[in-house]
Amino acid sequence: MTTAKLYNIQGTEIKSIALPKQFDEPVDENLIKRAVLVLQQNKRQKYGALKTAGMRSSANLSRRRKDYRGGYGRGMSRVPRKVMWRRGTQFSYEGAFVSGTKGGRKAHPSKPEKNFEVKINKKERRKAIRSAISATLSSDLVSVRHKLPKVFPLITEAKIETFNKTKQLKDLLIKLGLESELKRISKKTIRAGKGTKRNRKYKTKKGPLIITAKVGPLEKASKNLPGIEFSPIDKINAEILAPGTTPGRLVIWSESALERLEKEKLFTNSPVYLKKEKANE
């Protein structure tokens, strides 16, 4: 059984606590990557051309003698055409409808009914989450992306969930030794490419993730700190815990979140959690 130190909202150590069994899962980077990629692929939006695109013009052109508005005797290929202008009995034609002509349909257009959904086994998904949870305890993995604080791992008392001001949270993070981490995530850079025109001009770094037992005022308080994310314990997934498929995110756990993780046996194959998961589907 893994143990860790518990800190109060002043940043001082209170006691040592035992962590839930989910933290004992071996870190499987391949499984975490698979679970994250499934989540990312399922965010993909459907897209496609209109079914009648390029086929909405009258492109019937007769090849029979004496037919009005026909192409007989003009020396034209037998491509469907539409009339662009007319002077008496003289017409100007342009290729239409068939693929390979200007204004015609595409040969193999993208189809909006195509399904991009990718599936993953439930046991694999739960195991990936448990693996990503245990990766948050590895200082070697966490130090790849983050500036490690003086105290690690970061587990605070439940009072942190009552914070309703950004200043309260920021002061606590500094007391816990996250000053250099806050400095790192405060920098933002301009994105390269067309994303600058599409309401995503700036890029910010991923900072610490705060996990609590339930949604509360702390969620609003954390929004003003760039890079810091918030999630209740029952809503976490592999992508939140391992952004970009890289395990080892710096997580600040609240004591009540760990209690709920153990009591409800979240992300395990226990009948207690399976019954609750089935009810939420």
Summary?
By secondary structure, this protein is of the alpha/beta class. Helices cover 28% and strands 16% of the residues. It contains nine helices and ten strands.
Structural domains: how many: 2
- Fraction of residues in helix: 25-40%
Alpha carbon gyration radius:
30 Å
Helix and strand run: EEHEEHHEHHEEEHEHEHH
- For this structure, what is the CATH class of the largest domain? Alpha Beta
Task: Give a written overview of the molecule.
There is one protein chain. The chain is built from nine helices and ten strands. The protein folds into two domains: 3-44 and 119-280, Ribosomal Protein L4, Chain: A (3-Layer(aba) Sandwich), CATH 3.40.1370; 46-115, no CATH class. Helix 1 packs across helix 2 (122-135). The protein has a four-stranded parallel sheet with strand order 5-10-8-9. The chain starts with a strand and ends with a helix. The chain is an alpha/beta fold and 281 residues long.
Task: Write out key terms for the chains shown.
10 strands, alpha/beta, two-stranded antiparallel ribbon, 281 residues, four-stranded parallel beta sheet, Ribosomal Protein L4, Chain: A
Write the layout of secondary structure elements.
Blueprint: E1 3-7, E2 13-18, H1 29-41, E3 81-87, E4 90-95, H2 122-135, H3 139-145, E5 154-156, H4 166-175, H5 179-185, E6 188-190, E7 202-204, E8 209-212, H6 217-222, E9 229-232, H7 238-241, E10 251-254, H8 255-263, H9 271-280
Parallel strand pairs: 5-10, 8-9, 8-10
Antiparallel strand pairs: 1-2, 3-4, 6-7
